[in-house]
Amino acid sequence: MEEQKEPEQFSIERLIAIPRGVMHEYNIPLRDRQGHIKLAITDSAGIVDGTMIAEKSVQPLSHYNGTAFVEMNFMLEGNISQTYDGLLTKHHYNKGYHNILFNPYSTETNQLMTTGRHRIFSIHLLPERMADLLRDYLPEFHSLANKIEKGERFVMHAPANSMDHRLKYLLHTFWDSPLQSGLGKLYFDSRILELFSRQFEILAGPIKKIPEIGKADLERLYYVKELILNNLETPPSLKSLSDQSGLTELKLKKQFKMVFNQSIYGFLCDERLRRARQMILEGEKNISTIAYELGYAHPQHFHRAFKKQFGVTPKSLLR
């Protein structure tokens, strides 16, 4: 009888067939080790908690990641060597190691480095969800959101010995889900946000001391932000923003960058391109019309800026 190999090909893509908000457990029969996996999915994420137990040296396992996800990986027991084509080569994950990783459409190879028990817990977030979280909550990581939107691969290694008691508690209690089935998705999404918050708090490092910005000035800065967002086609001048907000031009430029981690002009350019990308995907207007409506005098300028921002041409979104 031919050896059954299908379980070794199990991949994150198979999560799409599992009901959302419900935890599932499987024993995975492998030739040279015992495998056990817990799985759950929500509308924007997959959770994979995998354990392998080896009594002797074992062969590496490889699979192709055919769907784009941003991974949050946490090594809870044992140690493995992981290779991602074009990103990592035999990188060691020891107990307590964690990272953020984005390497879409690539082959992943995992090798157990010792005998015994090995456990890795991973959150797989849809790229657009991770990018939105970074933009909404972490201005210091906007550059990471840009990479995700452009499809640029990256890995961020957490500092050594940074899996503290708070992070461990979140991981070890993750599966303590409510009994009411209707609350499953809400529960898992909320726990994912807790892990996201703590992991990025660690990755951001010690908080830098910045000059205090008063509540009144902060409200003025958010008012300026809304003025820009509501007038992307014909943006107000710096003088107009200064007059409308009551902040001097110098103070406005300085504090806007402190709060939003980019210049006013940089913010305007990024938001114009994001709006353009959304309008192209909606398909209601042609690209030239969108470019003109968003203030680009020449379509070629828009095409260059769009490709620089997202790594693809506007037309490629229509294919």
From TrEMBL:
Keywords: DNA-binding, Transcription, Transcription regulation. SMART domains: HTH_ARAC (SM00342). One of its GO terms (molecular function) is sequence-specific DNA binding. InterPro entries: Homeodomain-like_sf, HTH_AraC, HTH_AraC-typ_CS, PchR_regulatory_protein, Tscrpt_reg_AraC-type_HTH. The keyword DNA damage does not apply. PROSITE patterns: HTH_ARAC_FAMILY_1 (PS00041), HTH_ARAC_FAMILY_2 (PS01124). Pfam families: HTH_18. It comes from Chitinophaga ginsengisoli. Gene3D superfamilies: Homeodomain-like. The keyword Ion transport does not apply. This is AraC-like DNA-binding protein. Residues 222-319 form the HTH araC/xylS-type domain.
